Automatic annotation (TrEMBL):
Domain (Peptidase M1 alanyl aminopeptidase Ig-like fold): residue spans on this chain: 446-538
Domain (Peptidase M1 alanyl aminopeptidase C-terminal): residue spans on this chain: 543-858
Gene3D superfamilies on file: 2.60.40.1840, 3.30.2010.30, Neutral Protease Domain 2 (1.10.390.10), Peptidase M1, alanyl aminopeptidase, C-terminal domain (1.25.50.10), tricorn interacting facor f3 domain (2.60.40.1730)
Gene: pepN
Catalytic activities: Release of an N-terminal amino acid, Xaa-|-Yaa- from a peptide, amide or arylamide. Xaa is preferably Ala, but may be most amino acids including Pro (slow action). When a terminal hydrophobic residue is followed by a prolyl residue, the two may be released as an intact Xaa-Pro dipeptide
A GO molecular function held by the record: alanyl aminopeptidase activity
Keywords: Aminopeptidase, Hydrolase, Metal-binding, Metalloprotease, Protease, Zinc
Name of the protein this chain belongs to: Aminopeptidase N
Length: 859
């Protein structure tokens, strides 16, 4: 591979429409493990002057025929990733036959065979590993697919759209043909062949059409499929009632596979899911698993309109479909459960992962400007900040205005491949609100910082608020312009009663807002509901924050005040080089919540939870690793000790019930779990944990006991864990939870224990779920060992990345992320990380995925 030629980034600014469009593509797959033959018949038409360039990678070309005439080597040009015809006519038919090797495909992109199942993953650029084709989202064609096999172990042969025919040939081979009437880009193509159990159901749309729903899962897993099916029906109904959007085909299929690089994929009419996000029952799944299933089922379903019917012009526009669809799935989850809890989760993702990405060498706007490997841009910035940008639009336009904008966008662009600008334009046209400045959110990276001040003039009963905004330079972009930022505020009187709520639109670098008829000095709740993805600098005292935490109308604001409270306390302690001390005031507030929890028990649990290491770390330019970890540990121990009886009382006050996944039952378990976490830190810790474990009749509670044991480093933890592993060794999804637990072992044993996990019979270096369960858990949830001063934690991850890069580069590059931010640590850690990254960069045959990230990171 020639680095300088092959690794050139593609730029948004260089976008050119395709020279040829494809009207129809007729695919035939003759399935065979190591040599699947793919015959593709394309009807093409010229769109612009220029060559016909077809993408293709790792293909063996058997033949190419143009309008019935077989072409010879001199009539086309073949490179490692393209096939070019320079004299193609303006219109015609091309037949291309290629051979591919699904069994050897461990990258899980294109067509792969794993666990006896043939499965495709074409987003972003996987279709080019199936056949030569203009593999870009702005080429929309009508697909038909014929699947042929002589293998009787593959009773189900699936593809997009409607099943047209099914027959057995005289030689015993089976042939199934599918047609998808909706033109689509190649990234939405899917094929699955395997043996499954199938849960069938039916959905009648608002307009009265009946849709067949099918969920295909591994044999024996049918009982664990019901929740996913019910979630799908809820999602279909919700999109009708909230946005007036109905499903458009007669059939909707979901297939669960265990080998998958991401969560799930929205292929037209044939979603492919990571089995982790389909299968659930009380004995193997936690409340969080249930939550994720409903949200991801919703996400992929919602893509049918935002992504499939209206798709992206090019991959730089990825947030057009992902930011919008994450926003939609968040709204769905909020409507199905607690809006406050959902908002807390979203804000946690922003404050930990997304702010960290903005501060990292991989910083990019939600619409990136240049990309080497597209797989590297399925990021928290594109997805989650993208969703926050959509949410701000809804805040500025109002719910009705936003819905009208979405409706106009979908009507105007149905069947098209469009840009983020087209989306904002539709929002502007539908609402009449000028969004010129708002568009900067699409091309400006980095986390904006707001500094806020308040002044009260008692004589005139006037309140003056000053807000200034500043976005620090990010790795790839020095100049920043002022953004349009919606700042929600609430004013509280001194006794905590709400005085007034306002939406401020900050557009200048510095701006003043005045309010009259304010009879007394109020306390301002800034950025209520996290109304913009920004950092906030306030002059709050800890007492102000406790007041907001007790009194604000908005649940997220209350939780946020507690988060700020702890950050402030810890920052002060670190500055003074002292250990943090709990105030009597804090103890009283906590005691109040424990003895009389809020109506929302889940919010109470969150109010009692300290920010995690990554959230705190986000506030520092150079992260004081040891001091932060020490403060967190000490504070948790102090809280546990001071309030032991109150935690016990609260725990006991919550009655046990048989398992049910409902908002109220989840909230009860969450609060109980929070109490248990603190009780585990007391001298009675062993007893509390053992009792919770033994009484558990579901996975959520069982895991809560094990997590508390691990977090408190109880001597009994190892033994409990082994008991758990023995009980569940036959269920690989539960064993992933075991891996999670092993990876958060606080002691130095973590290295040998993780090594032992990789030696278990169910572990596989080819299965992303197995690897993530161990190594992502380690790097993201065990800061103590990951950030060890001797570098052993970093080295463990670097070794795994190096080992995985040739197997599955997409996964390797994702695991690598935490190592990129070396600039945030002290000199010694910087040197270790630079050495490891340099070694990776020198690895022969390094993938584009890992190359792009490492080369951006190194000085
Ligand atoms: N579009 C998918 C989603 O719903 C993302 C996705 C699934 C993906 N599998 C992938 C992206 C593989 C890149 C590669 O969010
Ligand atoms: Zn998506």
């Amino acid at each position: 591979m020639n680095d300088t030629l092959h690794r050139q980034p593609k730029r948004l600014a260089d976008y050119q429409p395709p020279c040829f469009t494809i009207r129809t593509i007729d695919l035939t797959f003759e399935l065979a493990a190591t040599a699947t033959r793919v015959t593709s018949i394309l009807r093409f038409k010229r769109n612009m002057p220029g060559n016909m360039v077809l993408d293709g990678q790792q293909l063996i070309l058997e033949s190419i025929t143009l309008n019935g005439e077989t072409l010879t080597a001199g009539q086309y040009e073949l490179t490692a990733d393209s096939l070019t015809l320079s004299n193609a006519p303006d219109e015609g038919e091309l037949e291309i036959v290629t051979l591919i090797n699904p069994a050897q495909n461990t990258a899980l992109e294109g067509l792969y065979l794993a666990d006896g199942v043939y499965c495709t993953q074409c987003e972003a650029e996987g279709f080019r590993r199936i056949t030569y084709y203009p593999d870009r989202p702005d080429v929309l064609a009508i697909f038909s697919t014929t699947i042929i096999t002589d293998n009787h172990a593959l009773p189900f042969l699936l593809s997009n759209g409607n099943k047209i025919s099914e027959q057995t040939l005289s030689d015993g081979r089976r042939v199934v043909r599918w047609e998808d009437p909706f033109p689509k880009p190649a990234y939405l193509f899917a094929l699955v062949a395997g043996d499954f159990d199938c849960l069938s159901d039916n959905f009648v749309t608002a307009s009265g059409r009946s849709v067949l729903l099918e969920c295909y899962v591994q044999k024996g897993d049918l009982p664990r499929t019901e929740f996913a099916m019910a979630s799908l029906k809820r999602a279909m109904r919700w999109d009708e009632t909230r946005f007036g959007l109905e499903y458009d085909l007669d059939r909707y299929m979901v297939v669960a596979v265990d080998f998958f690089n991401m969560g799930a994929m929205e292929n037209k009419g044939l979603n492919v899911f990571n089995s982790k996000f389909v299968l659930a029952d009380a004995q193997s799944a936690t409340d969080l698993d249930y939550f994720n299933i409903e949200s991801i089922i919703g996400h992929e379903y919602f893509h049918n309109w935002t992504g499939n019917r209206v798709t992206c012009r090019d991959w730089f526009q990825l947030s057009l479909k992902e930011g919008l669809t994450v926003f939609r799935d968040q709204e769905f989850s909020a409507d199905m459960g607690s809006p406050t809890l959902n908002r807390i989760d979203a804000v946690k993702v922003m404050r930990t992962a997304q702010f960290a990405e903005d501060a990292s060498p991989m910083a990019h706007p939600i619409r990136p400007e240049q990309v080497i490997e597209m797989n590297n841009f399925y990021t928290v910035t594109v997805y989650d900040k993208g969703a926050e940008v959509i949410r701000m639009l809804q805040t500025i336009l109002g719910k009705a205005g936003f819905s009208a904008g979405l409706k106009l966008y979908l009507q105007r662009h149905d069947g098209q491949a469009v840009t983020c600008d087209d989306f904002v334009q539709a929002m502007q046209d539908a609402s009449g609100i000028d969004l010129t400045q708002f568009r900067r959110w699409y091309n400006q990276s980095g986390t904006p910082e707001l500094t806020v001040k308040q002044q009260y003039d008692a004589a005139n009963q006037q309140l003056t608020l000053d807000i200034s905004q500043f976005t620090p330079a990010s790795a790839e972009q020095a100049e920043k312009l002022p953004l349009l930022i919606p700042v929600r505020i609430e004013l509280l009187y001194q006794d905590g009663t709400p005085a007034r709520a306002e939406l401020l639109l900050l557009s200048e670098q510095q701006q003043q807002f005045k309010f009259d008829q304010i009879p007394q000095q109020p306390l301002v709740v800034w950025l209520e509901d996290f109304s913009a993805p920004v950092k906030l600098h306030t002059s709050y005292q800890t007492t102000d924050l406790l007041m907001i935490a007790s009194s604000a109308s908005n649940g997220l604001a209350r939780w946020d005040a507690m988060q700020q409270y702890w950050s402030l306390l810890i920052a002060e302690a670190i500055k003074q080089q002292q250990t943090p001390v709990l105030s009597a005031e804090l103890i009283a507030v906590f005691r109040g919540w424990l003895l009389q929890p809020l109506a929302d028990l889940a919010l109470t649990a969150e109010l009692l939870t300290l920010p995690d290491f990554d959230t705190l770390a986000g506030q520092y330019h150079e992260i004081p690793v040891a001091a932060l970890l020490q403060c967190l540990t000490l504070l948790q121990q102090q809280i546990a000790k001071s309030l032991q009886a109150d935690f016990a009382a609260c725990y006991q006050q919550i009655t046990r019930e048989s398992y049910q996944y409902s908002e109220q039952a989840v909230a009860k378990r969450a609060l109980k779990r929070r109490c248990l976490g603190y009780l585990a830190l007391t001298t009675e810790g062993e007893n509390w944990v053992a009792q919770h474990y033994q009484q558990a009749d579901n996975m959520t509670d069982r895991l809560a006991a094990l997590q508390s044991a691990q977090a408190a480093a109880l001597p009994s933890a190892a033994q409990l864990l082994e008991q758990f592993a023995q009980q569940y060794h036959a269920n690989v999804q539960v064993m992933d939870k075991y891996s999670n637990l092993v990876a958060v072992t606080l002691s130095d044993d973590v290295f040998s224990k993780m090594q032992q996990v990789t030696e278990r019979s169910w572990f596989s270096w080819k299965n992303p779920n197995r690897i993530r369960a161990l190594y992502s858990a380690f790097s993201q949830r065990n800061p103590q060992q990951f950030h060890r001063a001797d570098g052993k934690g970093y080295q463990l991850l670097a070794d795994v990345v190096s080992k995985l890069d040739p197997v599955n580069p997409q996964l390797a590059a994702r695991l690598l992320t935490p190592l990129l931010s070396w600039r945030r640590y002290d000199k010694a850690r910087q040197q270790q990380l630079i050495a490891m990254l340099s070694a990776l960069l020198a690895q022969p045959g390094l993938s584009d995925d890992v190359f792009e990230k490492v080369s951006k990171s190194l000085p």
